[in-house]
Amino acid sequence: MVLGPSMVFLLILVLFCFTNEVSSEKELLSLKKHQWGVEGDSRSCFSPYSRTQNGATILEMKHRDSCSGPKTNTNQKLENRLISDDIRVKSIQSQIKNILSSQQESPSQTQIPINSGIKLQTLNYIVSITLGGRNLTVIVDTGSDLTWVQCQPCKLCYTQPEPLFNPLISPSYQSIQCSSPACHSLQFATGNLGFCEKDVPTCNYVVTYGDGSYTRGELGRDGLVLGTNKVENFIFGCGYNNKGLFGSASGLMGLGRSDLSLISQTYDMFGGVFSYCLPDSDSASGSSGSLILGNDTSVFKNTTPISYTRLVQSPQLYSFYILNLTGISIGGVDLNSPNFDKNGVLIDSGTVITRVKPSIYAAIKAEFLKQFSGYPPAPSFSILDTCFNLSGYDEVSIPTVRMQFEGDAEMSVDVSGMFYFVKRDASQVCLALASLSYEDDIGIIGNYQQKNVRVVYDTKEMRLGFAKEICNFN
Ligand SMILES: *[C@@H]1O[C@H](CO)[C@@H](O)[C@H](O)[C@H]1NC(C)=O
Ligand SMILES: *[C@@H]1O[C@H](CO)[C@@H](O)[C@H](O)[C@H]1NC(C)=O
Ligand SMILES: *[C@@H]1O[C@H](CO)[C@@H](O)[C@H](O)[C@H]1NC(C)=O
Ligand SMILES: *[C@@H]1O[C@H](CO)[C@@H](O)[C@H](O)[C@H]1NC(C)=O
Fold first, then answer.
1. Measured by CB atoms within 10 angstroms of the end CB, which terminus of the chain is less buried, N or C?
2. What UniProt keywords are attached to this protein's entry (predicted)?
3. The pTM is what?
4. Residue spans in the chain of domains classed CATH 2.40.70.10
């Protein structure tokens, strides 16, 4: 029998789909790439780029580590990073429990949101904005609302390489008055009331953080430029007194959901939609990702369709983005756990390592070890307890982890988000997932597992989408 060209094509297509299907449940990880991983390129660290395309504003997004210069004592740094990640997760858990229990005792407390600042511990990604004519590099946080920058005259400021924002030399800067609605919105946005000193009508804010970090100052407004889009009268915190783990960024961009967040303030311009693609910071290419403001999905470079799931509404946990996790598969094998859809999971740009309930973690670990077998074990590291010595291998094939959400949405964890390299020579490489302390803790999808994924936050349609994308600004 002679096959016609279309038959041959069909056959190839079938074979291709078949092999693709099988291999898609495992992905190759090159270990050499990590061993030779270069340090950040300090030239391109600050002042990330931006551009506008079809009405969407695209900001280059970089990992903060690419700014931190030569790495001394990498192991200590890696360990500290996980310790502070753990502090962040524990404070999120305790805040949530406080809120939920105080709500039962006194229903009048329901409107008091979580002090969003607690989520600041390990924020990692930075973008550049122009505020009052000044270019400023700020940390991106989906878990808090108020955007702020360090401001002159400083009572206490940490060191930043960029000049401090000076409201006196920006003709368009205005202080916000105590009587203004924006001052009243502070309670919802920061957990603290706006306050005024005697005889001074300007509204002061304070955001305090679980670890003792804080920013204080006055609430002001000025012109904000994002890419080429100008936002008049953008409300932000002009911080005179700032202390904490903000690296050397000039401030912070709040992408939460309350009235004062950047997303709410730019609603008319961007339709309440933003998305990001977090680059693989460990890769030798020193890559960058993007933060895209706007609802035009045609500017994304996703390679799979966006699958959306509902954002779960919780009046008490208003400032969090919460999803309904319905399942997890490892290398194509679905885990059985009745506990997936109990009280949802948070998706957070600031937590590093994804945390799941102890019972779910146990199931993941068992299935992962079954499929990723034969590799020499290595000691646990901090919160990570599934570790291997892979220094004898050039590459390994890792079972793919997929998280499933209500509405048939799925996030496939990129191979770059599967292992945490404790040692650069790969002699201690750990599965980058960890267990929560208690079964009733709330799961958190951390940024390590969100690398090379386009994550779309649609506050208008109240949904969140995932698609595969190799993150790149260009
Ligand atoms: C701010 O950044 C833009 C774009 O990178 C650049 O064209 C401009 O000159 C910068 N402005 C200042 C005041 O540095
Ligand atoms: C996208 O955002 C623009 C600007 O706010 C708005 O006019 C438009 O209706 C939005 N489109 C969709 C599909 O939501
Ligand atoms: C890791 O494995 C390599 C060979 O595969 C071995 O030479 C080395 O000693 C091991 N390292 C540790 C820390 O166990
Ligand atoms: C989560 O989704 C599942 C499946 O659609 C549904 O049965 C469950 O009620 C949802 N849970 C919540 C908390 O909405």
1. N
2. Signal
3. 0.86
4. 110-270, 297-474
What is the Cα 241 distance to its own chain's centre?
Answer: 25
Instruction: Mark whether 41 is an active-site residue.
Output: no
- Choose which residue among 266, 295, 298, 458 to substitute to test ligand 2 binding: the one with the highest number of ligand atoms within 8 A of its C-beta: 295
CATH superfamily, with its number, for domain 297-474: Acid Proteases (2.40.70.10)
Contact (Cβ atoms closer than 8 angstroms) between residue 37 and residue 424: yes
324 lines ligand 4 (CB under 6 A): yes
Phi, psi of 297 (to 5 degrees): -75, -10
Q: Which of 85, 86, 141, 414 is catalytic?
A: 141
Active-site residue 348, yes or no? Answer: yes
List the structure tokens of 117.
């600042």
Helix, coil or strand: residue 123: coil
How far, in Å, CA of 116 to CA of 254, rounded?
Answer: 10
CATH number of 110-270: 2.40.70.10
Stretch (H or E) spanning 25:
none
Ligand 2 atom, smallest distance to 268 CA: 5
- What stretch of H or E contains 57? strand 56-63
Per-residue pLDDT tens digits of the chain, which is 474 residues long: 445 556 555 555 444 444 444 445 898 888 876 544 444 444 445 667 888 888 788 998 887 666 554 445 666 677 777 777 777 777 777 777 776 776 443 332 222 233 333 333 345 788 889 999 999 999 888 878 899 999 999 999 998 889 999 999 999 999 999 999 999 888 877 878 888 888 888 999 998 755 567 899 999 999 999 988 899 999 999 999 999 877 788 999 999 888 899 999 999 999 999 999 988 865 544 578 899 999 989 989 999 999 999 999 887 777 789 999 999 999 999 997 777 777 789 998 778 899 999 999 999 999 999 999 999 999 999 899 999 999 999 999 999 999 999 999 999 999 989 999 888 889 999 999 999 999 988 899 998 999 999 999 999 999 999 999 998 887
What does the chain come to in residues?
474
Q: Where do the DSSP E strands lie in 244-279?
A: 251-254, 273-277
Q: Report the distance separating Cα 275 and Cα 294, nearest Å.
A: 8
Contact of 123 with 64, CB cutoff 8 Å: yes
The residue ranges of DSSP E strands in 298-425, in sequence order, are 307-310, 322-323, 325-330, 333-334, 345-347, 354-356, 377-378, 387-388, 395-399, 401-405, 409-412, 419-421
- Residue 296 Cβ inside 6 Å of ligand 4? The answer reads no
Helices (H), 127-280: 181-190, 262-265, 267-270
Which helix (H) or strand (E) segment holds residue 258: the answer is none
